[in-house]
Amino acid sequence: MTQFANMTEAILAGDPDRVKQLAEEGISRGDDAGAVMAAMIGAMDIVGEKMEAEDMFIPEVLMSAKAMSAGTELLKPHLAEGGDGNKGTLVIGSVHGDLHDIGKNLVKMLMEGSGFSVVDLGTNVAPDAFLAAVKEHSASLVGMSALLTTTMPVMKEVVDALKNAGLRDQVKVLVGGAPVTDAYAEQIGADAYGADAGSAVRIAKSLV
Ligand code: B1M
């Protein structure tokens, strides 16, 4: 457990080198990569609580996010499960107004590792950009991430834009992010909700 406490400290301190070192040590010791990742995600939840309590401010939160991303990169080869052929193309992005990308990047990483070809549109992605990418890449799946309650409605805008363009039947829509729920996915007409990156992959496989 101490190593996970150290990981929490390193993320809170925004220290990418220490995070990488701890992740590396964990893997060499035989720790499960998923458990190391879960410790990092737990640390980001604490960052969120501190942010809400105005105990941590944006520059510090950004440093924690960078530290988390450094650890994620290191774990990448240990988390990806190994794809068995091309499962189709996933267009993914964090919706318009939303700059949070750690969860989205995690989903992208595991999807690539599972045999999906992924087109990452990045953050702050407008509905039109999702639509254009679906057309250009003949995507079979659209993945949207939202971390803010204020940006969640953009997901519905994308679903509606796909309908209006006559593309809704050709593409499955998967949504996720901390404030998103199964009920919300259903309400906006998405095909599925992924609670975490692992379940997003399982669901994506079942959809295509
Ligand atoms: Co912001 N932020 N943030 N933030 N931030 C939250 C989300 C917040 C909950 C913090 C808080 O107050 N407790 C709060 C939102 C409140 C709300 O709307 N209910 C918040 C706020 C308010 C804000 C700002 C408005 C702050 C401000 O400016 N005053 C601002 C908004 C900027 C914007 O987007 N326009 C802001 C900014 C930032 C930073 C830029 C500083 C930074 C982001 C850096 C980055 O992403 N590169 C940041 C961070 C780091 C956070 C917290 C602390 C951590 C988020 C994170 O990366 N978690 C966050 C608190 C929290 O979430 N506990 C917070 C780890 C990540 C792995 O989890 O993204 O949930 P998550 O992904 C999960 C699942 O949700 C799922 O898989 C992952 C796990 O496997 N998942 C999917 C995610 N996407 C999916 C897609 C799928 C399927 C599953 O299918 C396609």
UniProtKB/TrEMBL annotation:
Signal peptide: none annotated. GO terms for molecular function: cobalamin binding; metal ion binding; methionine synthase activity. It comes from Desulfosudis oleivorans (strain DSM 6200 / JCM 39069 / Hxd3). GO terms for biological process: homocysteine metabolic process; tetrahydrofolate metabolic process. It comes from the Bacteria. GO terms for cellular component: cytosol. InterPro entries: Cbl-bd_cap, Cobalamin-bd, Cobalamin-bd_sf, Met_Synthase/Corrinoid, Meth_synthase_dom. Gene3D superfamilies: Cobalamin-binding domain, Methionine synthase domain. Residues 87-208 form the B12-binding domain. This is Cobalamin B12-binding domain protein. Keywords: Cobalt, Metal-binding. Belongs to the methylamine corrinoid protein family. Residues 1-87 form the B12-binding N-terminal domain. The keyword Metal-binding applies. The lineage of its organism: Bacteria, Pseudomonadati, Thermodesulfobacteriota, Desulfobacteria, Desulfobacterales. SMART domains: B12-binding_2. It holds the Pfam family B12-binding_2.
